[in-house]
Write a structure and sequence with these properties.
The protein is α+β, with helices and mostly antiparallel strands and 229 residues long. The strands form 3 sheets. A 6-stranded antiparallel sheet has the order 1-4-8-7-6-5, covered by helices on one side. A 5-stranded antiparallel sheet has the order 12-11-10-9-13, with no helix packed on it. It contains 4 helices and 13 strands. The chain is globular and about 50 Å long. It folds into 2 domains: 160 residues, 2-Layer Sandwich (BirA Bifunctional Protein, domain 2); 44 residues, SH3 type barrels (Roll), CATH 2.30.30. The N terminus is likely disordered. β2 and β3 form a beta hairpin. α1 packs across α3 and α1 crosses α4.
Length: 229
């Protein structure tokens, strides 16, 4: 059962989940928005009692993206992670993730992870690039609460894997399932377009590209845009 009660006092319990069937102003990363038809998709925010060093906060992104992928692999044959926090199927976006941390001193003191996962939606606005859903990929309708239950259980089952000692394994898994990794594609960095391939993501979550001339480009979110293969 998705946890819905609070811990003692006014503090939220670890893995507390708040779900809705509609949002009028869905948020994405930066200034991005998230569109969802009422009752069709999974829309949830989850609270985690994270205590990672603030400098290693991207480990949480890797953990959450991998758990989302693992959940979707119960329904689909292949799922990839598009840096930093999107989930792709067959080159199309099926889910977006927004992560916000609270920091006390030099450590995280809690995390809220929001997710929008397209489940039963068939039609999307024309200005949304390359969307898809579980329904569009499989031809089947799904019970949204059941998908949420599976995601929540997957996050709980793999929580102990989120640690500094497990950082290398977590990162290797994240990179193994990276969309467009090792493929030369067109990117825009600032005002310049380059052909490069994804080589890695550094511990701070910055994308590392290498162009045809062997030069490395390290880019934070909103500093680079994928233009196409």
């Amino acid at each position: 059962m998705v946890q819905s009660e609070r811990a003692a006092g006014s503090e939220l319990a670890h893995l507390f989940a708040l779900c809705t069937d509609y949002q009028s102003a869905g948020r994405g990363m930066g200034t991005n928005t998230w569109f969802s038809e009422r009752g069709k998709n999974l829309l949830a925010s989850l609270f985690f009692r994270t205590t990672l060093p603030a400098t290693r906060q991207f480990l949480f992104n890797e953990y959450f993206a991998l758990c989302t992928r693992k959940t979707l692999m119960q329904y689909l044959p292949e799922v990839q992670i598009k840096w930093p926090n999107d989930i792709y199927v067959n080159g199309k976006k099926i889910a977006g993730i927004l992560i916000e941390h609270t920091v006390v001193g030099n450590r995280l003191n809690g995390t809220v992870a929001g997710i929008g996962l397209n489940v039963n939606q068939e039609h999307f606005p024309d200005d949304i690039p390359h969307p898809t859903s579980l329904y569009l990929e499989t031809g089947s309708l799904f019970e949204v609460p059941a998908v949420m239950e599976l995601l929540h259980q997957t996050l709980a089952d793999h929580w102990e894997e989120l640690s500094e000692t497990n950082a290398t394994r977590l990162h290797d898994q994240y990179m193994e399932h990276m969309y467009q990794r090792g493929v030369f594609s067109l990117y825009r960095i600032g005002e310049k377009e380059i052909t490069a391939m994804i080589e890695d993501v550094d511990p701070y979550g910055r994308l590392q590209l290498r162009d045809h001339d062997g030069r490395q480009h390290t880019c934070g979110f909103k500093e680079v845009r994928f233009l196409g293969a």
